[in-house]
Amino acid sequence: MKSLFLMGTPDSGKTAVALGLALKFQELGYKVGYFKPVDNGRRSISGKIPGGDAVLMKSVLSLEASVGQMNPIKAGPDYLNRFDRAEDNLKEIKLTFEEVSNGCDIVLVEGAVFPHALAAVGLDSVTLARELGCQVLTTVKAEDDNTLDLAVFYNRYLAGMQIPCLGTVFSNVPRQMVSKVEGVFSPVLEEAGFKTAGVIPSHPEISFPTVREYQEILGGEVLVGNENQANMDQFVEDIVIGAMNMESALSYLRRAANKAVVMGGDRADLALAALETQTSALILTGGLYPDVKILASAEEKGVPVILTHQDTFTVVELLGRAFRHLKPGDKTGINIARENVDKYCSWQSLVDVLEL
Predict the structure, then answer these.
(1) Which fold has domain 211-319?
(2) pLDDT tens across 178-198, in order?
């Protein structure tokens, strides 16, 4: 049995790459397993830790292992209160990994939200990759030149820890950056002695959070739009804060597409203006119920309106933590994940190196 550990930062495409690779390996006739030893997803306002990657994999890949086996440890931001005996947790992880691996040709292991998560108790991604005997594939979200720094740092650190890294996948690459990643980032990485395993262009359908994911992290009440699943599944590319005068607002609202507009419920003028542009959701802060005209217009245009009692600053901070989660019924997202690996990743070289 071979194992491949995928690690990276939030929104770096770990789950999408893991799913795409798993589907490719299944297509090639291999029996595939999935394991996520630690889930430390960031809490929503309700205290819930978003997750579901194990549920996704079990459903899409038709895996025999239970969700509990595939994801044995859940840890929130205050995890130290319950991790006083980390060696017991490591033992549990190893035992469940053996159970999940039984009969598999390859097991794809997905790291926590951050590679350094739970490092204080020896359960970070790098330590777990070494303890489980995995080879590693890193994923990095391409944003600017710091992306290359992060890719080099990951590879050097893994090399220093004597953990084999099979390469880096640059994921969610904006279309205008694809040429730079291929023509500049990849050669620099190779000169440093490391490999590029893929350059995946950004796809809005799996790169940006949905209105529903925003609503879940806020714990807000959906006043309009919840009756239509398509409305809640619209993706959000930008956040506009409605704290400007109408003249400035109109210019910006027209330029920003697929946006969530965050404002107080008393800004009826701004809300109605936003609804005349390409808006994915209105998020009303401070518990201020809006004018009925806003709800009527939003319902007519299919734009969800979410009411939350948090202030605008808190709401924007929470929304910054939201990122895209693929779900079992998301056929479009699942197909894109499969196609991305097929078109943009060096999956054949991974097969060769892993000796599958």
Answers:
(1) 3.40.1390
(2) 999 999 999 999 999 999 999
Taking only the tens place, the pLDDT of each residue in 273-317 is 888 889 999 999 999 899 899 999 999 999 999 999 998 888 988
328-340 pLDDT tens trace: 888 888 999 999 9
Q: What are phi and psi of 3, to 5 degrees?
A: -140, 140
- List where CATH 3.40.1390.20 sits in the chain: 211-319
Residue (of 37, 104, 32, 105) closest to 68 by Cα position = 37
Q: Which CATH superfamily is domain 2-207+326-354 in?
A: P-loop containing nucleotide triphosphate hydrolases (3.40.50.300)
Angle (CA) 346-204-224 rounded to 5° is 150
The string of DSSP codes covering 74-107 is: E--TTGGGG-S-HHHHHHHHHHHHHHHHTT-SEE
With left for phi above 0 and alpha for psi between -120 and 50, is residue 279 left, alpha or beta? Answer: beta
Task: Please state, in angstroms and rounded to a whole number, the distance separating the CA atoms of residues 128 and 5.
Answer: 9
The H or E element containing residue 298 is helix 292-301
- Report phi then psi at 345, rounded to 5: -115, 150
State how far the Cα of 180 lies from the Cα of 170, in Å rounded to an integer. Answer: 11
Q: How many CB atoms are located within 10 Å of the residue 195 CB? A: 16
pLDDT value, residue 321: 74
Question: Which of 160, 142, 164 lies closest to 151, judged by CA?
Answer: 142
Alpha-carbon distance of 166 to 134, in angstroms, equals 11
Cα 319 from Cα 260, distance rounded (Å): 10
CA dihedral over 68, 69, 75, 81, signed as positive or negative: positive
**What local confidence, expressed as pLDDT, does residue 247 receive?**
61
pLDDT band at 41 (very low <50, low <70, confident <90, very high): low
Average pLDDT in the 62-73 region? Answer: 92
